[in-house]
Task: structure prediction
Amino acid sequence: MTEQKEKKEQVYYPGDDHWEMENDVLHLIGSHCRKCGQNYFPAREICPKCFAEGQMEKVRFSNQGRLYSYSVVHVAPKQFSPPYAVGYVDFSEGVRVLGQLTTTDPEEIRLDMDVQTLLGKICVDEEGHEIVSYKFKPL
Amino acid sequence: MIFLSIPVRRFSMREVAVIGVGMIKFGKYPERMLSSMGREAVLLAMKDAGIQRDDIEACYSGTLKGGSLLGQRILKDLGMTGMPINNMENACSSGSSALREGWLGIASGLYDMVVVVGSEKLSALGGGTLPLEREDLEVSQGMVMPALYAMRARRYMADFGATPEHLAKVVVKSRKNASMNPLAQFRQPTTVEQVLNSRMIADPFTLFQCCPTGDGAAAAILCSMDKARQFTNRPVRIRASVLVSGKFEPGFRDMTVPEITVRASKLAYEMAGLGPKDVHVAEVHDAFSIAELLYYEALGFCAHGEAPKLLDEGATEITGPIPVNPSGGLISKGHPVGATGLAQLAEIIWQLREQAGSRQVKGAKVGLIHCTGGGICGLDHGACSMHILER
Result:
C-alpha cells in the first residue's frame, strides 16, 4: 500500500531503464547496432537503418550534448505548466534527443551551447502523478 | 525515388481532371455537425461540376479528428452510400491524401468519377494547440506543433539572418490576400507591429503567426480526362499526384531543410515534366510563419537561405512572379486540418479558371498545391502530398 502511494506521487517517464544516474548527472541509455554502427535513443530491438535483428547492444550516452534549437512554449496541453522550454540536443553518439530545458530565461539559453543531462519534473498527469524524466541544463 | 516513378513509367495511367470544387467558409461552427459541413462541400462541388449523384462511383474522405466512418456520415443523407467509401487519416495531409487516392482510383482505370472530401471540426476539441499522439516520445516531453516549427524558425534565423520582421511579413501578406477571400477565417489586414505584439505562443512565434483553430470542409469531383468534356468545357488536368511519408532519422537533421517536402517536390516536378519556374501560382502548407519561407526553398522557388529575400522583393505577392498562398493560406484562410488539402485545390482550380475575383493571379495556367504535416518523433513530418494542376 505504502509502495503504491509513493508510486502515485512520482512516475519516471518513459521509465528509469532509459537512463543511469551517477551522482546528480544522468546518462541516457540507448541502443548500438553491432552490424551498421548506428546508435539510437530510445533503445530498440530491430535496427531501422540496416534492419538487423538481435544485433542491438546497450550504449550509455555521454552526459553532455549540444543544443541544436529550442523554443519557450507558452500554450500547451493541460498536464504541462507553461512557460517551459523544449530543445533538441545533439549527442556525440550521433543521436538527437528532444527534452525540456531547466530554464526559460533567454539570457541563459543560446544555440549550440553545451547542456548537461539530469533528472527533473516535466509535467503532472491527470491522476496527479508528478512525471519525472531527463532534462537539459545549460552549462 | 523509383517507387513513385513506377506507376507513371511502367503502367499507362489515365489522365485525370478536376471538374468541380466546393468549400464552405472556414471559421468556427460549434453548433454545426461535421457531417453537415462535409455534405455542403460535396453538394457545392457536385453543382460546380454539373453532375448527377449517380455519376459518382466512389468516395475518398479525409479527416484527422472527425471520427469513424465520416465519409458514410456525410453521404448517407444524400442517399449516396453503397459505393466504396474510403476514410483517410494522414494528419494535416488527410484531405490531400484523399485527393491522391481519388486520383489513383481514376488513373488506374478503376473508376471514371469520384468525389473527394476533407472535413474537420477543431472547435469541438476546445482550442489550444492541436492534440497530438501521446504515445509519441517527444509529445510526452512537451512537444507541441508550434514549438516544432519554432525550433526550425530559430535555427533558420541563426543560420541565415532572417529576422522576426520577416516572419511577421509572411502574416501581413497572408492577411492581405485573405481580405480578398470571402471564404477565409481571418480577413482583417494587419501590420508587422500588430503581428509581433500579439501574445507569445512558442517563441519566436506570436499568436498571429500560427494557423487558427477552426472548422470547415472542402470537396472536389475528379473525372477521367476522356469523360470530363461531357461535363465541362474547362477541365483542369492533374499533371502530378504525389504522396510520401517522412524518413526516419535518429540523428542530426538540418531543420532548415524540410526533407519530406524536398523529396515530394522532386517527384512531383518529375511526374509533371515541369520545374519550379513553370509554376504560376502555389498554395503551400504555411501552418506557421516560418513554414512558408522554408517551402519557398524546398519547392525550388529560390535557393536555400534566400526565402527572406524573395519575400522582401514581393515575388510571392499576388502580383509577383511566383504568387504563394493567394487564398491567405493556412494562417489566414484557416486550417481545419482534414479540409486543408482540398481547400488548397479549390483555390488553385478557381485561379486556373480565372474565377478568383480580386485575388486573381493574372494568366495562371499551372498551379501547385503542397500539404504536409503530422508531428512524429524522428520524422520531419508524417506525410506530404503534392499536386500540380494545369488548365
About this structure: Chain B touches chain A at residues 128-129, 131, 137-138, 140-144, 146-147, 150-152, 154-155, 158, 199-205, 248, 250-253, 255, 377 (CB under 8 Å). Confidence is low (pLDDT under 50) at residues 1-8 of chain B.
